[in-house]
Design a protein that fits this description.
13 helices; 10 strands; six-stranded mixed beta barrel; single chain
Length: 409
Amino acid sequence: MRLATTLVPALHALRVHRLRTGLALLGICFGVAAIVLIVVLGSTTQAKLDAEIRELGADVLLVLPGPARSKGAWSTKGKPAVTEADGDAIAQEISGLVAVAPALRGSTQVVAGNRNQSTTVRGVTPGMFEARPWPLTTGRPLVEEDVRRSAKVALLAHGIARTLFGDEDPSGQVVRIKQIPFVVAGVLEEKGHSLDGDDLDNQIFIPITTARKRVLGFFRGHPTAVGGITLRVANTAEMEQASAGVRGLLRERHRIGRNDLDDFVVRDLAAAQRAQSQSAWLTTLMLTGAAAVSLVVGGVGIMNVMLVSVSERRQEIGLRMAIGARRREIGCQFLIEAGLLSLLGSGVGVVLGVCGALFFGAGPAIERPETGLAILCAAGAATLITIVSSLYPSRKAARLDPAEALTQG
């Protein structure tokens, strides 16, 4: 069997019957486009969630004032729910921790020269940058001596440094926080935004003692109250064990009864993000399955179009058989037509899917290996479905009786 005897008639038939060819392409085209677009968007969401998990730290626990905090009070009993003493006890009693970092947080206006900016001020210890590493671009880090002396020094995040000093290196310059002069010790690397929209680059870090005494104040006379404690666990496999240990220790320290609620929360932020990431993956899988169903529907459409084509071309088929074409050549012609439809539909579908991904700003995900794999799988599935759908029409065409086809066509 020569390829030309089947390929040329197949190409001619597709070209002559443009409307029928276009209708047959639609189902495959949209099915492939939907799969490519869903996989690319899903991959983009997954990458953002993974980045957020890395940003949060897969090995980080956060201890926060819990349900007892209401209406701005730290606890219903007028006692702070979390204190620096709790942090010291956690560091001494709980094994497997790399860093324990209590912190305070507030918002205020910061001024440098004639520029000012509303920003988040965090009172921290050097342990904060061990719990959640954040490299410096210039200057020096906070040290224990700064905390012990309640020094008026500050680390600026990238964004606030640019706002107040432009391209100038702010190290050694003075900023005013609540009219109090602070010397800029250094500038932190750019972080960008978190998924919940927090601008991580609009923050200033000062010693926790300075923050409490001069900027953020005490809580109702409790000199060691903090807004939270960040813990970094040495082994991520022991996160649950560390969380349970911290909870038990704090319940004991806060003298919480067996049936009473905790007045604090031990939160594994990365675990929440991992659950969100898994949910996003399942959603992508379900949508991909739904798109795959559209490919099957497209295959049924191709079968119908091919059956109509066989009926309309009975005379052509009969004439080819009469001049010597074999039955398998007739069958192959329809299979080749279906294969060409599949290639055209898949190609147009991939282009539409990629254009859709670019429209939704997911361009970088197109270069990822999983996107290429998704395109291959979608095109492969489209080809398989198209070939299977055209088997019956091609078999029907191959079994036509030449005499009947010529007389009834």
